[in-house]
Amino acid sequence: MTTSGPDETLPVELRTEALEQLLTERGLIDPKAMNKLITYFETSVGPLNGAKVVAKAWTDPDYRRRLLEDGTAAIKELGFTGPQADHIVVVENTPTTHNVVVCTLCSCYPWPVLGLPPSWYKDPAYRSRVVKEPRTVLSAMGLELDDDVQITVRDSTSVVRWLVLPERPAGTEHLSEEELVPLVTRDAMVGVAKVEAS
Questions:
Q1: Which of 4, 44, 103, 139 is catalytic?
Q2: Active-site residue among 4, 44, 108, 156?
Q3: Going residue by residue through the chain (198 aa), what tens digit of pLDDT does each one get?
Q4: For this structure, is 158 an active site residue?
Q5: Measured CA distances, 11 to 5, 8, 151, 155, 157 (Å)
Q6: What is the CATH code for 45-190?
Q7: pTM of structure
Q8: CB burial readout 154-190, b (16+ within 10 A) else e
Q9: Which residue in 4, 44, 107, 156 is the catalytic one?
């Protein structure tokens, strides 16, 4: 006799909701604790924090220097700390050099400034291919770089996590730090995209 597993044709949201309801009914999770945890990841950690770091670096040369010298300390100045933030190294993308981040072993990621890692970041195909053929992978993800741009792949580990300081897009010189924040994406801080002016 065989038993069928969960219907994988159902949207992940419905499956997640059903699992949460089952765990709650059995007393294995507390909905209030779950809501607190979800709120923490939605508001206290995430790409918005990283965007604030980037925007400050774009508008404050002293902060930019400190960020590139000691990413962990400079990020902590803005109050972003916690698990996976013990040692963050920040590298800068320029018109001639482009950095892209991967974790070849698992999914090490600077959660306090980028939030939870996206599914593609954890995918074995991304983790293996971006090291061997970064230009091809970036192109497949929609980022075309000129042939003369040098690409460096940064491998995050449990000891060192990387954050990319993307290039500030042309035409944003008149924007304030606060106005720049919404332009910065998680993908740009991983190095698989560029920041667009709007």
A1: 103
A2: 108
A3: 444 555 557 787 788 788 888 888 998 889 888 888 777 766 667 899 999 999 999 999 999 999 999 999 999 999 998 877 789 999 999 999 999 999 999 879 998 999 888 999 999 999 999 999 999 999 999 999 999 999 999 999 989 999 999 999 999 999 999 999 999 999 999 999 999 997
A4: no
A5: 15, 8, 37, 33, 32
A6: 3.90.330.10
A7: 0.81
A8: bebeeebbbbbbbbbbeebeebeeeebbebbbbbbbb
A9: 107
Q: Would you kindly state where each structural domain of the chain is located, as residue ranges?
A: 12-43, 45-190
- Among the listed residues 4, 44, 106, 156, the single catalytic one is 106
Establish whether 4 is a catalytic residue. no
- Quick check: is 107 catalytic? yes
**Coil, helix or strand for 100?**
strand
